[in-house]
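SAMPLE LOG
Freezer: B-3
Tube label: C17
Construct: single chain, 381 aa
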Amino acid sequence: MEQSQNAGNLSSEEIARYARHLSLPEIGIKGQEKLKSSSVACIGTGGLGSPLLIYLAAAGIGRIGIIDFDVVEYSNLQRQIIHNTNSIGLLKTESAKQHLRKINPSCRVDLFNQKLTSSNALDILRSYDVICDCSDNFPTRYLINDACLILNKPDIYGSIARFEGQVSVFNWKEDSPNYRDLIPTPPPQELIPSCSEAGVMGILPGIMGTIQAAEAIKIITNIGYPLNGRILIFNALKMQFKELKLKSDPENRNIHKLIDYKGFCSEVKVKNEVDCDIKSISIKELKKLLGQSSKEILLIDVRDQNEYNQYSIQGSTLIPLSTIESGKAINEIKILTAKKNLYVFCKSGKRSLRALKHLHKFGIRGISIQGGIEAWKKEEN
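STRUCTURE (predicted):
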């Protein structure tokens, strides 16, 4: 592939550092010089981005761009291995740069402490040879995909959930598939649990992010067979890999400008869902109501038993979403709401919306608590 800088000779220190690469006929000095003169942009410095960035810096990538706007929290440390306990409260980009500088001081690291958006994506990604999608949400994945199509950049995609992950290479060649070939239409947002809701095995992003790094090195050095037109799926519980073929639809390459991706992903609704407007209330408003007339309020927690045991709002009643959607809890809720106003919460607000939309079918009305238990905790702190 065409490089962003002129390849330079390797110093004696670099020859020693990359000796095991140089011993590989497929890489050798020419391949290592390609790595040195290449540039890679990584969107996301979390579970996938951590191992990817570490291995790319160690491999001798000349310039790495890191795009992230989040800060390091304790809940990140179980899987985001580029950060440590001393990183708590730091910007993830800053924490990552500190780690990469210790691994390879000669690697130039560019920081973009901002969210990737339709207004900045083309400018940020334009100067990089390879783009690595280590994001964790659908709007950003579509944004990265479309920006890569417009800029003609390879998009190394990775995603994880619970015990399963997948990796592929999009837009490598003119006839390569892209993310829209894999998921033409985004799924309804309320059906997508976040990482904090669904959970993830800590080691999983390490495996998938490392595979993404391997694909980047192969593309830059032009060796092997990248995951072009193939989706590699890994199941950690079964310790099993499988591969699916992916075909390219020329219509999905017809992208000429970036759009409002949050709006694009929120337009999709659940099939056959009752069309209803669900009212919501902020944590501040709820606390005020609880202080005035708590006896008239029924607080239902629709998370599962384990989440409830860890932390919940005092006085709330646990009725898991699964029992609502299966119909088991409908009569109980009808009785409980006969003389009380219903307020529903979960971890972040997605499951409470699903619960209230389902209850609407049975004539039960209620109000969703914005931000769920996460917002409640923040308000307490």
